[in-house]
Amino acid sequence: MDERIYVIATASVMAAYLFIEVARKRFDPFAPVWMFLLGYFQIYVIQALSYHEYAIRVRGVEVTTLANTRSLWALCWFLLVYHVPIGRLFAAKLPKAPGEWSVGVMAWLTPILVVWGLVGAFAISHDNTKQGIEVSQEAFILLQFPIMMLVAAILLIVTGRNVAHPRPAIALLGLTLSILYIIIWMFNGKRSHSLFGVLTTICAWYCTRGKRPSFAVLGGVAVIGMVVLTLAVGWRNNPKYERSPSGFVQYLGDFNPADILANVNLAEHEDTGGDAKKEVSHETEEIGGYLLMLDTVPLKSPHDFGSSYLRIFSTFIPRVIWPDKPIFGREEWVSAWIAGSEMKRDKTFTGPAIGILGATHLNGGAVATVIVLAGLALLLRTGYEYFRRHQSSPWAQAWWALTFYNAWLMTVNDDPFVWFYYIYGYTILPTMVFLWVYNRLKVSGSAAAPIDHHAPWTPPDALTSPAGDGPILPIPNLR
Prior knowledge:
The protein has helices at residues 4-23, 32-50, 52-82, 86-93, 103-123, 137-142, 148-160, 168-187, 191-207, 215-237, 245-253, 259-263, 286-296, 311-314, 330-340, 355-389, 394-401, 406-412, 418-422, 428-441. The protein is an all-alpha fold.
């Protein structure tokens, strides 16, 4: 049997799930499951098919078959747990979202966030000679908050598009800042940040009015997202242009849309000449890292038994307090690369992501995959159900716009929780906690009437397209 049949089966499960959700009028593009499936499809379907010959040549039929079968059953398990009612029950027990939204706090908070974000962004802008601006360790810490600019943009969009008291000028300012954020991070060559800008903006723009984008709009957003990713990566890796705003403009003018196909693993990059027969290594792609882990752990290198997840806590303990703080899980991660890589690696190796299934296999094989995916499914469903219970709350709208896309990062990184200690845990989360406390305990200058959390759920027919052409993608009452 051709081992690719399992990849086709994985894609079929996703297609069937999408069809069922749309047919039952349960499809919500801002549900985290779709971001999770987007990353999953990219790695375990597109990459698995595009790099199949490479996988067989380097890792053999047995490992490739194992990879494809695990991708299939792991997806089915994730979807099963995601749809059990436990997440809904957890969400019902959580404290209510604030029913007020203070415009007064926005007036002084957003300028601080914008300036902070701009300083951080420009300080780490790509510099061909210095690789950024040299600063002290203390200042370097303060510059790790460029996403604060995007947080400010979303807060302004939510404030400006408040249903009770709309302020179009404020919403337009937020939209402008969001676009500026995307451009800055394309110039900095950071694809993730650029995509964050696209996803958070579209979510905030629609959720503030209780609407969902049509499939046509979603298609346009998908194209914009792929273009943004391709431009950022191409600018970062292309040596033909001067690293300056003028060089960037020239690069944009010479952009070849065909590069998008290579960026989504549907074609070879130009440096390979498109020669399918050329033995090119794809070890640095997520599927390559996944195969490496399956081929290496635990026979040649040990499991980390979930030690990497300790970084969720250890990251936030300053080295002033814990000078010899280790990077939990890194030793096992590097050891696996040294033992199984096609190339010579050493302990200084700082390689690419291995994808969610590569990470869970490093944690503890199939058993760890079952445990971790179940935990992630419950976490995502609980967060989504909490947003749905309080979706008329401006705070919940801003929080969800700045949160839901992390389901994509869970699947494409080298640790399902990198997103948390990489940026979210010390930037977005503290800001939203502050706003939650402020709006719950010290309400002043509110821009919205208090929300009755016990009121009937918004009828599905109320969710309409921006053009007002009838109900689209309605969300059912699950309460």
